[in-house]
């Protein structure tokens, strides 16, 4: 994977996703594995029980990770926390919208919702890690006395601190 060609639809852990904050990096590894399990269950035609089990695990971990990440940001005094949390809330509403669908008699709506969520989660997660989370990590590391080298493929911040200020939250 090169910095110029991130495939946001392909959810695979790689060193390019390392932010340099151990707690968050470890959670991202686990979260990606859970979302991959859900996506695989849907794409490979897993049983309804497997799909539900993997979805439940991925959604529960999403909520837990969002809470943990918010706590790290609050403790550090991150000045762009509101933008970041807005992104979390939008994703959470989208996930809840997908999971709140009601099945039709033939199960078609349920399958469409599962497929849509299996597409959305990996794309959103890759984009979020590579933009908003990377922006936070860069800010966080810049404040640290033991600042580490910039993580691979880290885009340069613009003046207001947001990496892509023109993308609406």
UniProtKB/TrEMBL annotation:
CDD domains: Hemerythrin. The lineage of its organism: Bacteria, Pseudomonadati, Pseudomonadota, Alphaproteobacteria, Rhodospirillales. NCBIfam families: bact_hemeryth (NF033749), hemeryth_dom (TIGR02481). Keywords: Iron, Metal-binding, Oxygen transport, Transport. PANTHER family: BACTERIOHEMERYTHRIN. GO terms for molecular function: metal ion binding; oxygen carrier activity. Signal peptide: none annotated. Belongs to the hemerythrin family. The keyword tRNA processing does not apply. This is Hemerythrin-like domain-containing protein.
